[in-house]
Amino acid sequence: MECVDCGPLGTSKRRDRTAQGYRRFRCSGCGRQLNERSGGKLNRTQYPSDVIGLVVLWRLRYRLTLKDLSEMFLQRGILFSYETIREWEAKLTPVLTTELRRRCHGKGGPGRRSWHDDETHLKVRGRWCYLYHAIDRNGDLIDTMLAEHRDMDAAKAFFRLAKSATGMPPDCVTTDGHGSYSRAIRSTLGRHVKHRTSAYRNNGLKQDHRGVKGRIRRMRGFKEFGAAERFCRGWDELRAFLRLHSRHNQYVPANRRRLLLRLPNRLDTFRRES
After folding, report:
1. CA distance 35 to 13
2. 9 falls in which pLDDT band (50, 70, 90)?
3. Domain coordinates in residue numbering, the chain
4. What's the N-to-C CA distance of the chain in angstroms?
5. Class of the 110-224 domain?
6. Surface-to-core class of residue 67, CB atoms within 10 Å of its CB (0-12 exposed, 13-18 middle, 19+ buried)
7. Per the confidence metrics, is the pTM higher than 0.85?
């Protein structure tokens, strides 16, 4: 355990623990008292990190409202309000997104050089916004971005994000033929990138929009653009990480499905951040 002020100096372990059961430490340099969650985003929270992490994971993974989650945990004797869940989501969703992106970084292969790009519209505070979404030939997520407008600047910004996520430009990009894509691809990805416009090659990506729209419909929309952008990115990253199939028509046995979907065991992000 390192002190948040002094750094890698010696700390001594104390005998007592916090109310949530976390070990206490004392810094030999500054004399500050620490615990296992000191310096993290969940420091001084009333509930254990595992409970908070599970609430946020269920919030992003399943079609549950804030009140649904508070009622589910109330049946287990854990009492908190839906506004508390909103605060936990705002704190931990960026951490989860960054960790999932780090784990998927460097995931390459021939299919990574072929992109399929499309966008869908959703309402934020009564105004239409556009969710840009790109996948590779194998269906793995490249990147996602929420923009207030569907124009040239938004397309260029999205392709810059996608290029930084993969670390390399693609060989081919398939779009629906919107006028802003051709110039954005040439100026951002390079003139050597082939641009295909097809009415049917992006059908899989268009069907994929049903998931996020059904999820947002259950939440009854968004009130802030930042909250909408944070949730859409976290939802996409988590779903891509827990994706069962890595190729078309792949058979996944039931025991493999259970192993992949054991969320608390696969993601230890919240334990490290606490």
Report:
1. 9
2. low
3. 1-39, 49-104, 110-224
4. 13
5. alpha beta
6. exposed
7. no
